[in-house]
Amino acid sequence: IYHGYVSEASPVGTSVATNDSLSTPLAIIALDNDVEEVRIKTYRTRDPQLQFSLDSYSNVFSMSATGIRRYLTLVQPLDRETQDSYTFTLIASDGVQQSTPVTVTVKVLDANDNTPTFANVSYNVNLFTDMMPGETVLQLSAVDSDAGLNGQVTYRILAGAQGHFLIGNSTGVITVAPGVELTVGRSYALTIEAMDNGPAPHRRSSITTVYIEVLPPNNQSPPHFPLQQYNLEISEAMRTGATLLNLQAVDRERDPITYKIHSGDPHGHFALHSGYLVLDKPLDRESLDYYTLVVTASDGQPDGTSTAMVNIVVTDVNDNDPLFDSSLPVNLTVTEEQDHAYVGRVKATDPDLGASGQVHYRLVNHQQLFSINATGAIRTALPLDREVKGHYFLIVEAWDGAVDPRRSRLTLSVTVLDVDDNSPIFTQQTYNANLPENSPKDTVILQLKAIDADLSSNLTYRIRVEGADQEIVELFHVDPVTGELSVLKVLDYEALTDSEPTYTFTVEASDREGTMPPGLASVTVRIMVSDMNDFSPVFSQSVYRGMVAPNAIKGTIVTTVMADDSDPVGTPAGLVRYKVDQEAYPYSASIFDVEEQSGHVITRVNLNEEPNLKFSLVVVAYDDGEPVKENTTLVEITVLQPSVIPVFTKEEYRFPPVSEEAAVGTPVGVIMAAAVNQTIVYSIIDGNQGGVFALNETTGAISTAKPLDFEANSSYVLKVEADSMRVVSSNLRAPSKTNTAKVVIDIQDENDHPPVFTRPLYIGGVAEDAKTFTSVLQVQAVDKDTGNYSSMIYRLIIPPQAGKDTKDSKNGFVIEPYSGVVKTAIMYRNMRRSYFKFEVVATDNYGQGHSSKAEIVVSVVNQLDMQVVVSNVPPTYVEKNKDNILERYVEDQIPGAKVVVETIGPHRHGDGMEQEDYTKSDLMIYAIDPLTNRAVSRQELYKFIDGKLLDINKEFQPFLPPGGRILEIRTPEVVTSVKKAVQAVGYTEGALLALAVIIIICCVPAILIVIITYRQRQAECAKTARIQMALPKGKPGGGTANNLYEELGDNFLVGQKCL
Fold it and tell me: Where do transmembrane segments lie in this chain (predicted)?
């Protein structure tokens, strides 16, 4: 939102200002992302050449035509008294797209351009000699439409008062002066001036004359209004019955006064009650916004009536909704495939004043497809496709500019007009059809269908002749209008040479009236001649028999039927399915069923039948050939005596766990069932996937049949069944509640898997100044076994150092046996760039079982190998997420490199790095190269990370809080301080050389200086030595630096001594 100010006295061409002092013009800036921006020192950019448009008041204001900053200027003079503010919306456009509208409010500042004006040029007043000093003679009122001091009026008597009358300078009330006695016959002509309080040079004034006649005392004087003219502003929302103004007059004789509205209120909106003006009916500013009432006060005597004038201005409230122009069409059309095409226009008006009467528009729906500008013109935002959608109901909303706006909506019907821009498309990518042999000539094989999305299309179908086999044209025909494909000859499957005779050809559909190419579509048609269904299914038995327990549960398999079909395998005619003939034996069909695919005859319900009953069931076998052929068989089902159905001793058997290392054939347990005078046969009917277990059908003994694996399956649940030999000998089964049981077999875990380390090589680092028992890294091994078999004991195998007695040598590291944490066991001073390589062993079962090994490499480092990563994230947060940062970017340069975090702390800054900032963090890291087993140089580490800061910050945003990022990569402060110390030592050497020259010249006088300087030199050497001793030394040999000075390049200090 932009706010501007302009004086009503400003000439045409004046720019709108940003403040009421009018010192700075209001600049409105709009940028286009399509235009390249160039920033030079301060913010500047190329002119995007945008066009600005105002939704209203374009006759009052205009925008400058060019530049990044555009300015509003006056097109015509303003009058604050007519309108004191302007609110409108501004839109920038590059000719293709428009910006979001912004609101601009311009306040008009007052100029002293109005003169105080009296209602009358002169006034006549009759006074009586009995008027008392201080009594009101007349109240004058001059109106100044200006605001503030410019509209504040001051009154004074210029001439004619003769000292007998006074006037209130702010009220305009003329009174009789103190001590004055009026004389009959005297007359006065008072010249009264009304002046505003604007700036002194620009004040404006006017005058009027009050003629006063002094009369003898009158016992019948008319009532007297305090004012001759009243001015009043009333909101049109004022409630009826509200008291608006006190118009009570004064009668000298105290006679009763009657009040009346004489004129100016034709519709009776106002009433007078005992001298009070009251609102009697609701007001409507839009109907009438100004009333001039003439009111009278009468005491009933002749000439006992006086009048006063009441000027009433009705002010506006936002009580009207924007109203759409009904004369504009609401049924609109637009042609498809046109960008920014004109659709139509709406217009709404609001009779309210100011911002409440300013109308704005927006689209409620389909904003991505249509746009509306400030004038109500509607265009397409992108090309429309009638074939996607041919009609839209577009809802336009109009609202006024009030703080709490009122709204109206209008629904437009937009029809998208068609252009011929589509080719025909077949409804299928390919057409496949089976043509039964011996089909009559002209048999319709299939219906080809192509669709043209355009409204006016006339499609024609034909078989493509070019490149096609002539036999196709002789065998098949397509109707050019309907697209029906028919056969022209009778085909015999057996007479065809191919094993699977198929005809493939192309059919085309063309739009004969299409105007936009291409207007042609094609599709592949594949016709397969099929053999007819020559054979019916044949059952293997004419009668099937089954037995069932009297209390068999639902789903129990009674018997199985089987039928074969001699038609070719894999064809629909050779596929056999089963169903029950419901009409042959209805009761049997209600309690028994047959599975469609398998042919299992099963119980449909839980049985409760009498023993020895027999049921007959007709089962139908049918194929899917054309036509369908079927056959039937009879199934006889006998309900067994309960005595011949074995009963298990338990409903569930649970045996001791079986070791997963048990040999094949190991006994698991024995199940047992009993029946009266029956030989029992046992079987496993479910749960033995893979045949892991075997069941002796005679004894009920269960044993392992295959090797077991606890990790693959830790428990088995078998379902077993016991049947009498009578039932089994009939190749039948009779499951029931009593002759089935559950067997639970748990597998016992054994220590048959060795531990496996999470990685074959662990890389870590340790600082030269690390204390004993500092944690270096943690190893971990996992074991597929459970319990103690997966519990580890860790130990280290550290080879002795070359050239040292193994009895006297001390291992450099130890490991916590249960956690796998490797810790330091010695001090590593002066061992920088050394490394230790040793093995770790993990043994399961708390050290009593299998073992595995892994390698550990630990490199000795100091701060010369480190960089500090500074981030704007607190240290506690970095501590939680440190493993998610940086390592991959080092591995991109050195495969397998290990990034080690040395310390995490608050950001140190200031002189001497003594100040700490806990809102930021310093992360000190180094990296170890797996090829050399030594730390990557500090300079290389800096290049690897600093060059990728943007990518690192972007990739690790999910691991950081909002706004979190890495700020910089810097050198540790100890390295920086050593650089400064080296420079200081170098300056001392130069000073000593200069002193030596002075000694030669000055000789004896310089001896004292030399002695003093010598002592200072010794002190500085001692300081340098202390610095060297405080810093870690490098490993001798191999061309590596021996201390920090050498690493920094100041080798000239090496070998110098302090004498």
Answer: 991-1014
The pLDDT tens digits of the residues spanning 148-196 come to 899 999 999 999 999 899 999 998 999 999 988 888 889 999 999 999 9
Last residue of a domain, one of 530, 546, 566: 530
**Both tokens of residue 316?**
């506006």
Specify if 471 maps to a domain: yes
Q: Strand pairing partners for 530?
A: 436
Query: Which ranges in 325-420 belong to alpha helices (H)?
Result: none
pLDDT of residue 1050: 36
Residue 843 sits in which domain range? 751-801+811-861
If asked whether residues 338 and 403 sit together in one domain, one would say yes
| Contact criterion met (CB below 8 Å) for 177 and 166 | yes
**CA–CA distance, 202 with 197 (Å, rounded to integer):** 9
Q: How far apart are CA 1041 and CA 935, in angstroms?
A: 14
pLDDT, tens digit (0-9, with 9 covering 90-100), for 84-131: 889 888 888 887 777 888 889 999 999 998 999 998 889 988 888 878
Those residues with Cβ within 8 angstroms of residue 200's Cβ, 6 or more apart along the chain or in another chain: none
Whether 1044 is covered by a domain: the verdict is no
The model's pLDDT over 635-674, given as tens digits with 9 standing for 90+, comes to 999 888 877 788 888 889 999 999 988 999 999 999 998 8
Tally of domains within the chain: 9
- Whole-Å CA distances, 427 to 179, 434, 448, 451: 114, 19, 8, 7
Cα–Cα separations (whole angstroms), residue 606 to 386, 585, 591, 615, 867 = 62, 19, 8, 15, 79
- Continuous H helices in 136-194: none
> Is residue 1004 in a domain?
no
Note the pLDDT of residue 119: 86
Q: Are residues 958 and 872 part of one domain?
A: yes
Residue in the block written with tokens 């698991």: 668
Report d(CA 657, CA 638) in Å as an integer.
41
Q: Are residues 431 and 516 in the same domain?
A: yes
> Is 1027 within the bounds of a domain?
no
Instruction: Find the angle CA(110)-CA(111)-CA(116) to the nearest 5 degrees.
Output: 100
- Strands 476-478, 484-487: parallel, antiparallel or unpaired by DSSP? antiparallel
Look up the CATH number of the domain holding residue 133: 2.60.40.60
222 with 306: CB under 8 angstroms? yes
Structure letter (DSSP) for residue 1012: H
How far apart (Å, rounded) are the C-alpha atoms in residues 848 and 791?
10
The CA–CA distances, whole Å, from 745 to 429, 688, 708, 709, 714 equal: 56, 11, 11, 13, 9
